[in-house]
Protein: 2-hydroxyhepta-2,4-diene-1,7-dioate isomerase
Amino acid sequence: MQLLTVRLSDGQTSAAVMTPGGARLIASPDVGALLGEGQKSELVSRAADSGKKVNLDQVQVMSVVPNPRKILCCGLNYRAHVREMNREEPAFPTLFAKFADTLTGPHDDVVLPEYATDVDWEAELAVVVGANLRNADVDEARRGIAGYTVANDISVRSWQRRTLQWLQGKAFDATTPLGPVLVTPDEFDPASAATITCTVDGRLVQAGTTDDLVFNPAELLSYISQFTKLAPGDVVLTGTPGGVGAGMTPPTFLGNGAVVEVEIQGIGKLSNTVRLG
Structure:
């Protein structure tokens, strides 16, 4: 099953489900809200049968979860990326957080101020939580996954490098595209080695597979739940494969007007134009 969040012509937002006949609206304002409702399966089933059909060319496809309560991110979690950064494979996840207003839609422009320099791409698999998780073991965490989506953790390296803490380079407003759909675990399994790619102006810069993760999604959710409760609609970014601009020789960063596309096999594609200054 594939779920998404759309903004309609009247400005209202709605969750939707993809069906063989196209997208149909669900009686919930967005996918995050839908996951927090006790009758999620009933609402989705009803919408798939009789929900209002919408033309995706005539609506704005938004961040699949527009207002998550928590966004946690894992750095240095693909073995290829660990190698290109000249690091050792970590014993524990390297975590940082984002804010809800860091997110933006799968086709929106990413607009940054002129003082944001050395702007980099990071193709990522994102996990959306579907259950309350606290002190969860790996099996419970796996059962608590609502689904998977695509993220681009666009990073302002000039700010990220200012201190040992990464937050300031990772949390510029509306710089983390997320979407276009949430795919449920019955239709997507990261262990299946799905390809994850990033192109910049049509040039392939990242190519990896989701089985290269040091810590898989269930392990990440279990670990995080040991120190903070996870709830339906929370989002966890699982890290980026090798090929980021900062790891190139010489380092290569995004220019004004660059088109960045991130795609994960079996989920979908983000396509965003970067506007600098």
User: Anything to note?
Assistant: The CA atoms of residues 102 and 173 lie 4 Å apart. The chain has two domains: 2-61, 71-276.
